[in-house]
Amino acid sequence: HLYNNLGFSLLLEGKYTLAEAALRRALELNPKFRRAQMNCGIVLAKLGRDDEALAEFAKVGSDADANFNLAMVQIDKRMYEKARESLRRTLALRPKMKVAQIQFDRLNARLQVAQTVLAAEVVEPTHEAELTGAVTPDEASPSQPSDPDRKSVV
To answer: On the CB side of 58, how many CA atoms lie within 13 Å of its CA?
Structure first.
């Protein structure tokens, strides 16, 4: 348990490479230590080694559980598209997994809001230059006649 605890502490500190080494040592001493396997899966996912993380998670639970656990780490890392894919795989393997469906729905709602905000920013650019009478860099060109009543942005 000592190496697992050390690995978990290092994980919490964001020292993933050191955490992996401690957790691997815990698993050498007890290859069926489920908590160390889960923690190792989390560390591997944090390191971006998703296939290895899935393999560790699968040692503890089903493939659906493994994909769900990976998705939770991906959400934590703000890797939302990857998380959505992991949740899709989870639900394909276990369609009635309520917690996975809830997370999938939340993630889709979050992504939809983000896309709506981005679309609004593109469709409605800021009209600050019109309001202040300032000239934007695109408008300021030597070939345009200058307007003495207009303020220039430099």
So the answer is: 11
